[in-house]
Amino acid sequence: MRAIWKGSLSFGLVNVPVKLFSATEDHDVPLHQVHDDDGGRIRYQRKCEICGEVVPFEHIDKAYDDGDQTVVLTKADLASLPAERSRDIDVVEFVPSEQVDAIRLDRSYYLAPDSSSMKAYALLRRTLEETERTAIVRISLRQRTRLAALRVHDEVLLLQTLLWDDEVRDAEFPGLDEHPRVSENELKMAQQLVESFSKDFEPEKFDDEYQVQLRQLVEAKLEQGDTLDTDETFGRESDSGGGEVLDLMEALRQSVERRRAGGAKKAPARKAPAKKKTPTTKSTDAASAPKKRASAASRSSSSEERAPAASTPKKRSSGGSGSRKAAS
């Protein structure tokens, strides 16, 4: 794993050098939007509604719209705000762990020691365990101050960012104030039912069935030859204009011209499948297990890159920086 933040954890006069790692990752099959008629890649452009020009990213500002008026906030305006760049995680207080409601939890990160000395890290970890307390801390992530909970999880310090109080909505629904009478027999029977389902939670027993069947469907189409050539259908991104991409209409126009030109290379038509298969009945053992794909953070950037020729989709590796294979 690659650290996304480095700094120090401070409580009192104790200073612990630490590194922050994302504790979760996304393993969804990467899908693109394509034209249903010819399989061409759909791309979106940052186009100005007034002049109609495609605007490079460096010329894009932010704005607030109150419904009647729009306030433009330039990069200089935003730079004037007191951006937080502290490299310290400051412990604000220690609270009983049961008081931190799960509804307030946002993103999770592992906090690992960043020095050869483990003593201060181990001391805080053991103290939190034995006192059954959670540290409420402040941390600067992406130039914004975040409130977070720091607790112990599987022998490592786990930092979970918290939603601010005004971000949690009140549960105000009709009927919640009513208190219908529940008999002792009904309550006893319900408790027995709960007891019959009671087990220790083992998350590894549960799979994302949708993603499993989606992978099987993609693999079945690849084996049948029901594919398109990626270079022909996905086009190319432009190297100029701050991230501008090939205009969809221009790509379609060029495709039509190639088809009209007798000697020009035509975009391949869809190949007829060798034989019909039922993807959902395909055994997962028959296909090689796809490798893990990279984390959600790298997925957002790589999804805009031109996909290579279609092949069996693979999960990204945990440190993966390689390009992903497109599921066409």
From TrEMBL:
Q: Which Pfam families does this chain map to? A: Ku
Q: Which UniProt keywords apply?
A: DNA damage, DNA recombination, DNA repair, DNA-binding
- Residue numbers spanned by region Disordered: 223-245, 258-328
Q: Which InterPro entries match?
A: DNA_bd_Ku70/Ku80, Prok_Ku, SPOC-like_C_dom_sf
Taxonomically, the superkingdom here is Bacteria
Q: Which residues form the Ku domain?
A: 52-179
- Provide ranges: composition bias, Basic residues: 261-279
The Low complexity compositionally biased stretches are 280-301
The keyword Cell cycle is assigned to this record: no
> What's a single GO BP term from this record?
DNA recombination
Keyword DNA damage among record annotations: yes
What's this protein's family per the entry? Answer: Belongs to the prokaryotic Ku family.
State the protein's purpose.
Answer: With LigD forms a non-homologous end joining (NHEJ) DNA repair enzyme, which repairs dsDNA breaks with reduced fidelity. Binds linear dsDNA with 5'- and 3'- overhangs but not closed circular dsDNA nor ssDNA. Recruits and stimulates the ligase activity of LigD.
Q: How does it assemble?
A: Homodimer. Interacts with LigD.
Recorded protein name is Non-homologous end joining protein Ku
Q: Which organism is it from?
A: Schumannella luteola
Lineage of the organism:
Bacteria, Bacillati, Actinomycetota, Actinomycetes, Micrococcales
